[in-house]
Design brief:
The structure is a single chain. The chain is mainly alpha-helical. Helix 1 packs antiparallel against helix 2.
C-alpha cells in the first residue's frame, strides 16, 4: 500500500473516532440506546489510526517495523 491510501485510511480512522466520540457524548433520553454502540466503534477507529501510523513510519523510513516478540 502506498502513501496516499495509507493517509486516507488514517483520515477515515480519525473520522470514525470523531463520529463515535460525538455519538457517545450526545445527550439521550433515559432508556434510549444507540443502534450501534459507540465505544467499540471508537476502539476500532483508534486501532485503524495506530496501524496506519505504524505503516506511515514504515513508508517514510523505508525499514519495516519489527515485533519484539517474534523472531
Amino acid at each position: 500500500m502506498s502513501l496516499m491510501p495509507t493517509l486516507l485510511l488514517a483520515a477515515a480512522g480519525l473520522a470514525l473516532c470523531g463520529w463515535a466520540a460525538w455519538l457517545e457524548r450526545r445527550p439521550r433520553d433515559l432508556g434510549e440506546l444507540p443502534v450501534l454502540p459507540p465505544v467499540p466503534v471508537l476502539i476500532l477507529g483508534v486501532l485503524v489510526v495506530l496501524i496506519s501510523l505504524a505503516h506511515l513510519v514504515t513508508l517514510w523510513t523505508g525499514t519495516p517495523l519489527k515485533s519484539r516478540f517474534l523472531p
